[in-house]
Amino acid sequence: MTEQFDQIYDRRGYNCIKWSRNPYDHPDFIPMGIADMDIATPDFVIDGIRKRLDHPMLGYFRPDERFFQAILGWQKEQYGTADLSREDVAVQTSVLGGVASAVRALTEPGDGVLVQAPGYFNFAQVINGLGRRLVTTRLVWDGEMYRVDLEQMERQAVENHVKAFLLCSPHNPTGRVWSREELEAMAGICRRHGIPVIADEIWADLVFDKAHIPFHSVSEWAAHNTISLYAPTKTFNMAGITIAYSVVKNPELRERFERECQSSHYNLPNLLSAEALTAAYESGAEWKKELCAYLKNNTELAAEFFHQNYPGVIVPAPQGTYLLWLDFRPMGLGSDELLERFGKSGLYFNDGRTCIDYGDGCLRMNAAMPRPRLLEVFRRIGEVL
Ligand SMILES: Cc1ncc(COP(=O)(O)O)c(C=O)c1O
Predict the structure, then answer these.
(1) Which residues form the Aminotransferase class I/classII large domain (predicted)?
(2) Could you give the number of structural domains in the chain?
């Protein structure tokens, strides 16, 4: 299967956001910004969509039992979530849409919502856009990995009268896969202060070496106080046909959340996306395993490249996702200089300054690309540095 992931496709001319931004107009530009993969969506997903198109009508529809069984089967097989029932699951058009509905359901305008920093930039956009207060708790680098500073997290939650915690697990942008102990400790803080949790677990499938632990599974309190969001879109590279789903085990919380979801009239599922999700979850286990091995290899190669050649750059050992959080501050390099120097050699990274409160001198790198291209990225980084 590796050959399949190694194949290079030209995505230009297909309105692909990632490939439409070439700030220095480089003729052989390599974008590593937007979080989708330069790896083809698997055939069984495309075939699932194609098969539905054999019937010439695309009118209003409702996801069928097979759709929900595919989700329940995937949850059980991949995350060991055997106790979910059909009622716990609802369709969401996208994960961020679900996050926005959850923020509205759990908080009022002006309320504080806690997120970890660095963090996914669109979290800030959603929280600020809904008139809530963005409250941050900084992850700390312990020389080996980014960790939750539990004392600081609790202090920030209490001092800022936080009304919801928006957790990203696994974590964008650091690639951290939270341990059970960390998840339990975060749940403990939230329980002590009555703070419900929105768990964005869109990256749940891309975990190396161990199984993803759903936040709602870490304690009884978490099961009753968490709105979780998942999607097949990162895993199977199908974010352009948005589809996601929520898991809420507490019926009261679910009703509150569902009311918000429905009031926006935003959550009408897309027929072809539903077919794609069903096909992905029914047939995708083996493909996903191979993909994870490939991404692990890519991210490890990238981390090793920096460790060996530029030990001044802080790069955590990969645990999951395909994102690398590169901290150039020990080398005395700021974001503007880095973006310009890399940009001129045709490399584009996300500016760490956009990743919530953490970092002039940090860049986010997306390593989900065919390996031959990754080697070219290393060559150019070498030239620049
Ligand atoms: C943590 C996280 N949540 C949500 C999204 C976007 O999800 P969706 O496209 O389903 O809104 C992303 C995309 O990068 C992400 O990294």
Answers:
(1) 30-381
(2) 2
Neighbours of 1 (CB within 10 A): 13
Are 65 and 81 members of one domain?
yes
Which numbered atom of ligand 1 lies nearest the CA of 35?
14
49 — alpha (psi -120 to 50), left (phi > 0) or beta?
alpha
Cβ-based neighbour number of residue 346 at 10 Å: 18
pLDDT per position as a tens digit, 36-53: 999 999 999 999 999 999
pLDDT tens digits, residue range 150-204?
999 999 999 999 999 999 999 999 999 999 999 999 999 999 999 999 999 999 9
Nearest CA to ligand 1 atom 16: 172
Pocket of ligand 1 (CB under 6 A): 35, 94-96, 120, 168, 172, 200, 202, 231, 233, 239, 242, 244
Phi, psi for residue 372 in degrees, rounded to 5: -55, -35
Q: Residue 286 phi/psi, 5° resolution?
A: -65, -45
332 with 7: CB under 8 angstroms?
no
At 168 the pLDDT is 98
Residue 120 resides in a domain = yes
292 and 278 housed in the same domain: no
The dihedrals phi and psi of 45, each to the nearest 5 degrees, come to: -75, -45
Distance 39 CA to ligand 1 centre (A): 18
